């Protein structure tokens, strides 16, 4: 980044916080809230992408965001930290910056998290992560796939999954990995809005639901 440049200036292109428009208020209806949160996430993610592109740290930021996504899956405490309406901006800011520092995140990622905390936008971080990684893949002519497995996949397994997905979608695929130990087996793969599910747990749940319908 250039001298005197801060992320606050770049994210300034995003409209200022409007609690009545983007905060998750139940009375507005779940669909409307989800849609507005997605739009908010897309704007912030694009601002972050442009900064990372300018600083030539696209992959560094992508790696940080992937790690944060895994942390959100592994740590209920971190998930509560970003979603809690009770914590102050300062408390959320100190919390996420401590996490970023411990993880060795790139300074740009840390500044971005600080801006989200200051603007009370941390609740949308999961969607922002998805949006950033999807934009990165799109600009590289790739398709972003989210792969969730019960255990960490080996390099060979990742290569096999990537190749299989390439054949399915018909173009180059970038794989973002998440581990969920609660899965009994198999993989859960999402390519855009398309779900490819081979999870044994999901199959068992469907079987149980089907059996409930048998009188």
From TrEMBL:
<protein>
    <recommendedName>
        <fullName>ATP synthase subunit delta</fullName>
    </recommendedName>
</protein>
<dbReference type="InterPro" id="IPR020781">
    <property type="entry name" value="ATPase_OSCP/d_CS"/>
</dbReference>
<keyword id="KW-0813">Transport</keyword>
<dbReference type="InterPro" id="IPR026015">
    <property type="entry name" value="ATP_synth_OSCP/delta_N_sf"/>
</dbReference>
<dbReference type="GO" id="GO:0045259">
    <property type="term" value="C:proton-transporting ATP synthase complex"/>
</dbReference>
<comment type="function">
    <text>F(1)F(0) ATP synthase produces ATP from ADP in the presence of a proton or sodium gradient. F-type ATPases consist of two structural domains, F(1) containing the extramembraneous catalytic core and F(0) containing the membrane proton channel, linked together by a central stalk and a peripheral stalk. During catalysis, ATP synthesis in the catalytic domain of F(1) is coupled via a rotary mechanism of the central stalk subunits to proton translocation.</text>
</comment>
<keyword id="KW-0472">Membrane</keyword>
<keyword id="KW-1003">Cell membrane</keyword>
<dbReference type="Pfam" id="PF00213">
    <property type="entry name" value="OSCP"/>
</dbReference>
<keyword id="KW-0406">Ion transport</keyword>
<keyword id="KW-0375">Hydrogen ion transport</keyword>
<comment type="similarity">
    <text>Belongs to the ATPase delta chain family.</text>
</comment>
<dbReference type="InterPro" id="IPR000711">
    <property type="entry name" value="ATPase_OSCP/dsu"/>
</dbReference>
<dbReference type="GO" id="GO:0005886">
    <property type="term" value="C:plasma membrane"/>
</dbReference>
<dbReference type="GO" id="GO:0046933">
    <property type="term" value="F:proton-transporting ATP synthase activity, rotational mechanism"/>
</dbReference>
<keyword id="KW-0066">ATP synthesis</keyword>
<keyword id="KW-0139">CF(1)</keyword>
<comment type="function">
    <text>This protein is part of the stalk that links CF(0) to CF(1). It either transmits conformational changes from CF(0) to CF(1) or is implicated in proton conduction.</text>
</comment>
């Amino acid at each position: 980044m250039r001298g005197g440049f801060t992320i606050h200036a770049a994210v300034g292109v995003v409209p200022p916080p409007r609690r009545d428009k983007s905060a998750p208020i139940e009375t507005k209806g779940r669909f409307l809230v989800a849609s507005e949160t997605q739009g908010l996430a897309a704007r912030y993610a694009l601002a972050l992408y442009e900064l990372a592109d300018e600083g030539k740290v696209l992959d560094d930021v992508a790696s940080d965001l992937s790690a944060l996504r895994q942390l959100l899956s592994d740590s209920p405490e971190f998930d509560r930290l970003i979603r809690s309406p009770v914590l102050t901006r300062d408390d959320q800011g100190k919390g996420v910056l401590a996490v970023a520092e411990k993880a060795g995140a790139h300074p740009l990622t840390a500044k971005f998290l600080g801006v989200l905390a200051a603007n009370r936008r941390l609740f949308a971080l999961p969607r922002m992560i998805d949006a950033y990684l999807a934009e990165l893949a799109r600009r590289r002519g790739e398709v972003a796939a989210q792969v969730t497995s019960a255990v960490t996949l080996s390099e060979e397994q990742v290569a096999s999954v990537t190749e299989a997905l390439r054949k399915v979608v018909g173009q180059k695929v970038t794989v973002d990995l998440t581990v969920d130990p609660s899965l009994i087996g198999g993989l859960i793969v999402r390519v855009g809005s398309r779900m490819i599910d081979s999870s044994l747990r999901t199959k068992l749940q469907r079987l149980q639901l089907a059996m409930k319908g048998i009188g």
